[in-house]
What does this fold into?
Amino acid sequence: NKAFNQKNHLEIAGCDIVQLAEEFGTPLYVYDEALLRSNIKDYQKRLKELHPDSTIAYAGKAFLCSAMCRLLDQESMWLDVVSGGEYYVARESGFPTERLLFHGNNKSPQERELVLKNGIGRWVIDSEWELALLSKEAKNYLHGKLPVFFRITPGIDPHTHAYITTGKVDSKFGLTLVDGIAQRVIRQALSYENLDVKGLHCHIGSQIDSLEPFINTIKAMVRFMDSFKEQNNFVFSELDLGGGLGVPYLEEQKGKFPSVQEYVEAIAKTLQEECEKYQYPLPKLFIEPGRSIVNNAGNTVYTVGTIKEIPGIKKYIAVDGGMTDNPRPILYDARYQAIIANRVNQGSPEMVSVVGKCCESGDVVIQQTETISVQNGDILVVEGTGAYNYSMASNYNLIPRPGVVFIRDEKPYLVVRHEGWYDLVRRDILPEYLIEKG
Ligand code: LLP
It folds into this structure.
C-alpha cells in the first residue's frame, strides 16, 4: 500500500503524503481504509472456513473513534469495549449494542447502569465482587436475561512484555483456576435467574510472537470446561480466547510472527482436538484481535524541526510530536521505523535518533534508525502506528492531540479533527476567588 510517485514523494493508498501534510498539518495519524477492511475480511474468511460458528470482536482499545465504529458495523463485526467511554462512542455512532462485548476489571456503577439500560451482546464478569453486584442489578436489564461470560486467568505465560501480560495466576484480571475459585464463583452464578451464562473468556496478553501460549491456553480452558461439566452438569456453549496476536514493527521482524492464517488454524484445530479428546460439545468461538487488525494500516506523519548533531556521538532529529501521540517507546521500549516522505531514496543514509518535543529525555520515537540525510522541514512518516497510539495519546506538556485521516479510494477524509489550544482550556473552571488579578 506504499509507493513513491514521480515527485519522489511517499504515497499511502494512492495519496501523496507531502500534500496530505500540507492540507491537514502535522502530526497526523493516517489510516489506509482498504487495508483496515482487508485485515478484517482476512480474519473473517479464515476463521469462518475453520470454525463456522465463530465471532470476531475487534478490541476497540487498540484504536477507536466514531468512523472506526461505523466501518466495523459495515463489516458486520462485533466490538469489544472496556469502559463506559468506549461503549458510549460505539452507541453514539449507531453501532448495534447487541454486537458489543463489555469488559473491565472494575466497572463503575455508572458504567454498569449505562450498559444495563442500553443493552449488550456479552458482558464479561471479571470478579466475584462483580457477580455479587450483578446478581442484584441484572434484574434491571431491559432485554431479558443478561448474557455473560466469565473471565478466567488460565495461568499461562505468553512471554511478552510484563505490562501486557494478563493471563498469569498473579493478575488483576479474572478468576483464577487455583483452589477451585473459578469453579465456585461460576457455580454460584448458575443459580441467578437473571444471568444467562454463555461461556468463558480468557486473554493471556498482547504482542505474542508464537502460537504455543495460545495452544496451551485452549488446553487449559477445555480441561477446566470439562471438569466443570463433570461436577456441575453444565456445558459452556461459547469460548472467547481474547486477542494478542503480535505483529512486526520492523522490516527485520517480518516473518517472525505467526500470520493470521497460522494463528486461526492453530486455535481452531486445537479447540477441535481438545473437545474431541474430552468429548465436549464444540463451543462457539469468539476472538478479540486488536493490534493485528489496525496496526499496519496506520502511520504517523510528522514534520522535522530541530536537528542537533553531537560530533562523533549522535544526531538528534526532533519531530513535532512524540510521546504524547506515541507513548509506546517510553512505556514498553517499543521500536519503530520511519521514512522521509518528501525525498524518498534521495540522499545518503545516516544513523539518527528521532525524538519528540516533550520535556523529557525519554521522549524518543526511534532510538536509532537509518534514514536518508534529514533536513529541517522534511516530512517523516513513522510506520505501523495504527494500534495503541491514537488511543493512548495524552496532552502531556499541554500538547494538543493530532487528528486522524482515513484514505479511501485515494482520497483523504478527516475522521477526527486535530485538537487546538482552545481544547486545552475547555474543561478548566476558574472559581470566583481566582479571577482577581495579581
Ligand atoms: N481482549 C482483551 C481482554 C484485551 O485486554 C486486549 C488487549 C485485547 C483483547 C486485544 O489484544 P491485541 O490483539 O491488541 O493484542 N497498550 C499495549 C497493549 C495493551 C493490550 C491490552 N489488552 C501496547 O501498546 O502494546
